[in-house]
Amino acid sequence: MTGEPLYLTTPIYYVNAEPHLGHTYTTVVADTLARFWRARGRETFVVTGTDEHGDKIAQAAAKASVSPKAYADRVSALFRSTWEATGLTPGYFVRTTDPGHVAFVQKVLAAIHARGDIYFDRYRGLYCFGCERFYQERELVNGLCPDHKQAPTEIAEENYFFRMGRYKERLVRLLEDEPDRITPEGYRREVLAMLREPIGDLCISRPKSRLDWGIDLPFDARYVTYVWFDALLSYVSALEHVGRLDLWPTAHHLIAKDILKPHAIFWPTMLMAAELPLYRRLCVHGYWQMDRDKMSKSLGNVVRPLEMQARYGMDAFRYYLLREMAFGQDADFSEAALIARLNADLANGLGNLASRVLAMQQRYFAGVVQPAAPTPADLALRAAFDAARRDLDAQVADFAFHRGLEALWRALDHANKYVVETAPFTLAKDPGGRPRAGAVLHELCEALRVTAQLVEPFLPETAARLARLLGLPADVLGRLDLPWGDAFPAGHRTAAPEALFPRVEVPGA
RNA sequence: CGCGGGGUGGAGCAGUCAGGUAGCUCGCGAGGCUCAUAACCUCGAGGUCGGUGGUUCAAAUCCACCCCCCGCAACCA
User: Fold this and answer.
1) Which of A9, A159, A249, A334 has the highest count of CB atoms within 10 angstroms of its CB?
2) Which of A183-197, A243-257, A452-466 has the lowest mean pLDDT?
3) Distance from C-alpha of A157 to C-alpha of A205, rounded to nearest angstrom
């Protein structure tokens, strides 16, 4: 398992909005998983990107008096630059307007059409322009669209349909036989529940008379393909573009629960029809609920990643997101909670530990690491970090980032206790105690080194900084199996402490 | 029968899938330490884990029913 490559995707984000908390969370998870598994010997490849076709984009562009492409270019570039600035850099950034993607979509559509799984039919239905979709009678609330509270318009038109229903039973069997295809488990059950209802076929086109901002159907130039055959196929077209289609069967899709159905039902049936391998796993997370009462006025209602980065640092923001949300469940976002985490876990916990250890190393030994001489207490400290590593690995493998971090912080707590119990600051003042004080600090430096390595997927900037303060080369972060005691040879010097995470004081809080 | 989330010490949460000492942060009380970012460590007060019934040697955790709260006005992940 450990050696298997891993292809991670975020959704391609629709360019009708600027990057916000939801986009950022999914992208942070992808980045964290990529770093985590890379450090454990797996090749990882992350793709994110933008979804650029559709009504809303055409309308927004018209409103701004620019072409749809120009509009999409601008917002797409905003996503790309945001991820670069925040260090969430994917291996590839795909756009649905990329010529390669367009050609790929047309190739797949042509193949499925040739096979007879796409047919032409007349459709009459109730269409909501806000949702850009047709509704069944029974889905309406008092005759109105449940989202937009508007009466849908009856439209009759001819369109192309994908024979999705043909693959339903095969999909049900797959999900029953391979429970790990969708995680967390609750979402698999939800999908199986959806599949107990008739799923019908999927309308996959729009006449150009109504919408022409899309990819032409290869078999009928009067139409463009709509939404799913365009957007979902980007997961594969991106790999084709970079010449790594071999990674496709290892795909793990990270999504939020709002797009569960397209990813859990439309997408696998499309892949079956296209005779492409299925993705390996669908990983579904919940929503961040905005607690407006707890938001600062300056923050407003929108959580912009660049603002959070500027205010608290990207690492603190990442930590909060990963520590606070149980992957799969909803969570509340509040700036107060972020600050509480930052102060308690990062400043008082990790930051203060690094600070006191490096300060003593500096003050008592001019930064020179002394020989170790393990006692039972020292071995217990090592055991605490060994346990943290095991717990962390198990929890992250299960997407339980919050528990993984909790496990690592148990070891940090242990280290803080160890400082008090061994009291190197007392030992160092007595000539007879100096060797022991030096040995204790050696253990603590190792603890910090292991911490830097384990925390790297979550707090990459901090890990690099900690390594530097410890006087270690940056590549030490990838050497997870470096034995305890081997990182600091005789004469090794550490640097003077720096505040990794200054406390954030809130007036009146 | 719209969809979804939730009710755990004063506040905010984890733990529920794989039943077996109820854990974390903040706050509160007492003490310790003085290396450190007024941080760190120890001890303590405070919970019948929404309710009722059931399964079990054992339930916050499984099953049934019931009560209550919140989101779906957004930046849709």
Assistant:
1) A9
2) A183-197
3) 11
